[in-house]
Amino acid sequence: MSKYKPEGDLVTKPPALHPDPSKTLIGQHGIRLVPTTKDHFHGLFASVCGPENDDLWTYMPSGPHRTVEAFSATLTARMEDDEWLLYTIFPTSSFIPSQVSSSQIIAAVKAPTSAIAPMPLGIICLINFSPANLSIEIGHVLYAKSLQRTPASTEATYMLLRYAFEELGYARVVWKANSWNVPSRRAAVRLGFVEEGTFRKHLVVKGVRRDSVWFSCIDDEWFLQGRGSVKAGLEGWLEKSNFDEKGIQIRKLEDIRNSLTEGGQA
């Protein structure tokens, strides 16, 4: 009889599920994540394209796009990829934009349902599904400036982490960043992802070499009880009591995560 036995921890979990392309995720800080359709393209173009938004595209694999046709073609190609699910981020009536001067967004949010649709706030995606390996990635994060540095911007990632771990059954969620993209790398660490290392000369993007820094959050860290729990830290930070009337945080996410007790309280 063969004595062969693979080394490593035995995996008893069944394969994870594919994300549901019809499921809308609803947050508590004024956003909904709606699977992207072609009806969203023009609104998204207005939110994240144009010369005033060129800086949003510095580390994206495409863009900046000067026409809605070029932008739509890029999104359509992503939507046709079986390992991508794009979510359009829409505001609800309770959304507080980071730029009060964003009158177009504020007006759209307050408009009656029967009038114009709310202006999209950006895109966030689940990509590179590998159900058999229990791994999935959050990527192609593209936030309008009105969404950046708001509680809702953090909640968008929280919603996908919770969905991946608690409803779809994944054990690992990946976050990758261009090595030059310091804001993305800082965001990953702040959110609770752990840096794993760098793929050197990983890709050629827009004619230039890209090194990719890999981060991950695993189920052990998500469901952990006490200090360091990614889930409890995010949920504690997202509590309405952690923000003043202007939506400014009272305690930092990292401080809350590191002060958790065994009961999950900060």
Automatic annotation (TrEMBL):
UniProtKB keywords: Transferase
SUPFAM superfamilies documented for this protein: Acyl-CoA N-acyltransferases (Nat)
Domain of life: Eukaryota
Region (Disordered): 1-22
Recorded GO MF terms: protein N-terminal-serine acetyltransferase activity; protein-N-terminal-alanine acetyltransferase activity
Segments crossing the lipid bilayer: none
Signal peptide stretch: none
All residue ranges annotated as the N-acetyltransferase domain in the record: 32-194
InterPro entries named among the record's database cross-references: Acyl_CoA_acyltransferase, GNAT_dom, Ribosomal_N-acetyltransferase
Composition-biased stretches (Basic and acidic residues): 1-10
Protein name: Related to GNAT family acetyltransferase
Organism (species): Rhynchosporium secalis (Barley scald fungus)
